[in-house]
Design a protein that fits this description.
Elements (H helix, E strand, L loop, with lengths): L2 H31 L20 H31 L7 H21 L2
Helix pairs in contact: 1-2, 1-3, 2-3
Length: 114
C-alpha cells in the first residue's frame, strides 16, 4: 500500500480519536448536568413549575444523556456527509457540540423556569 491508500483511513482514525476525547468531556458534563434535577428541592405542594412534576424531573435528568448520544451519532453522520462532498471528516466535529448544546439548554431552561 502506498501513502495515498492509508491517508483516508488515517483521517478517520484521528477523527474517531477526537470524537472519543470530546465524548469523554461530554460524559463528565452529562453526569454533572443530571444534578439539575435538584432544582426541584424548592418545590412545594401545588407548585406548577415544570421541574416540580415527575415528568419534568425525568426530562431534565435524561436530556443530557440523549444529547450525548445524539452528539456522537450526529458527528459521525455529518462527517460521512462531508466525506461524500469531498471534504475530510472534520466538519463533523462541529455538529457534536451543537447537538449536545440544544438538549442541555432545554434541560437548563426547564430546571430554571418558574
Amino acid at each position: 500500500m502506498n501513502e495515498a491508500d492509508l491517508r483516508p483511513r488515517g483521517r478517520w482514525a484521528w477523527f474517531s480519536a477526537a470524537v472519543a476525547a470530546l465524548a469523554l468531556v461530554g460524559l463528565v458534563c452529562s453526569y454533572f448536568s443530571s444534578f439539575l434535577v435538584m432544582a426541584s428541592d424548592s418545590c412545594f405542594a401545588g407548585d406548577s413549575r415544570a421541574i416540580c412534576s415527575a415528568a419534568g424531573q425525568q426530562t431534565v435528568a435524561s436530556l443530557p444523556w440523549v444529547g450525548w448520544f445524539a452528539a456522537i451519532a450526529g458527528s459521525f453522520a455529518m462527517a460521512g456527509l462531508a466525506v461524500r462532498r469531498g471534504w475530510g471528516p472534520w466538519p463533523g466535529l462541529y455538529a457534536g457540540p451543537i447537538l449536545y448544546g440544544i438538549p442541555i439548554a432545554v434541560a437548563w431552561w426547564i430546571a430554571e423556569s418558574g
